[in-house]
Design a protein that fits this description.
alpha+beta, 4-stranded antiparallel sheet, 3-stranded antiparallel sheet, 3 helices, globular
Length: 150
């Protein structure tokens, strides 16, 4: 068996070049810049073995019918009743719209979510769990309902 050896200066140069390429300091246009103050969490709804797949990009919903249609499309029909209740209880102002997405499927329920608006896209990320469970009997699906200012 032969061992391939790379001289240290060559290795250092390759690492430095990779760092420059990865960090590529292109600043985003104004439309692409993130606005983290434009959204807020309404609720994180969780259910064991509800299905679905996590997606950062949220879908705008305007009422119970939209939530039911989203839940059917996302494969989380069993969560629609709770999401509708939370939507109806939300105190949305006239300049706010509601958005929903599955934020996690796993052993843990996120303590909350962070909402980012990039142009016309609403991105929702689960906040990290402080002490994650090492294992679970069934995955827990968590969906976030958020409000975004227009």
């Amino acid at each position: 068996m032969s061992i391939f050896r790379v001289p240290a200066p060559t290795l250092l140069a390759a690492v430095a070049l990779a760092a420059v390429v990865v960090s590529g300091s292109q600043s985003p246009s104004v439309a692409e810049q993130a606005d983290r103050s434009a959204g807020r969490e309404i609720a994180v709804v969780s259910r064991t073995a509800a299905g679905g797949e996590p997606a950062r990009r949220a879908t705008q919903v305007d009422g119970a019918a939209d939530i039911r249609a989203w839940a059917a499309g996302a494969g989380v029909e069993s969560m629609q009743g709770t999401l509708v209740k939370r939507y109806r209880a939300a105190d949305l102002s006239e300049d706010e719209s509601a958005w929903v997405t599955v934020v996690s499927v796993g052993c843990d329920v996120p303590p909350g979510v962070d909402v980012t608006v990039r142009g016309k896209r609403v991105l929702v990320d689960p906040q990290p769990v402080e002490e994650p469970l090492p294992e679970c009997f069934a995955p827990v699906t968590s969906a976030a309902l958020v409000a975004v200012r227009s």
